[in-house]
Write the structure tokens for this entry.
Amino acid sequence: QPDAVTTIASDLANITVSKVAAGLGLPGNTPECIEISTNKYAMRSAFKKAGLPTPAFYKVDHVTDELYQMQLPIIVKPTDRSGSRAITRVARHEDLQEAVRNAIDQSFEKKAIIEEYLSGQEYSMEAISYEGTHTCLAVTKKFTTGDPHYIEIGHLQPAPLEPELKEKIIKEI
């Protein structure tokens, strides 16, 4: 009888771990937690519902006329993939159709999320959460290829942050 189930930090692997842990009667993430943490639209919706700051966002399965009314630039990405797959910053309306098609093609559920573009440095936080207690392991500064696809090419851990800013980030997360 295993005592625990674990995996690498992968969205897809976490789905499997959750199901295996549940099948073995071990502690693990709930199906709701897995959905929210592996689907960008579900995550943004949960942030919004909780009153947390989040950019404007929409879920689509095709390009609609309303998308052409959006203020550019925007970010287009699959709702349910990781590893920077099919992420595109769209700065011209004529590039919208291809960006949405690429995101939908890479998505398991065949949907894309369109997000308001926010400029600035990108960070992530690695944490362990157990029974409502969240423990920050590290705040990581991300390095990407930049516009238009933002593919991660490196990380700096721990991120060089002033202690006050790091505490503010940890509290918000």
Summary: The two ends are 34 Å apart (CA to CA). The helical segments are 11-24, 31-38, 40-49, 96-106, 163-172. DSSP finds five helices and seven strands in the chain. The mean pLDDT is 91.
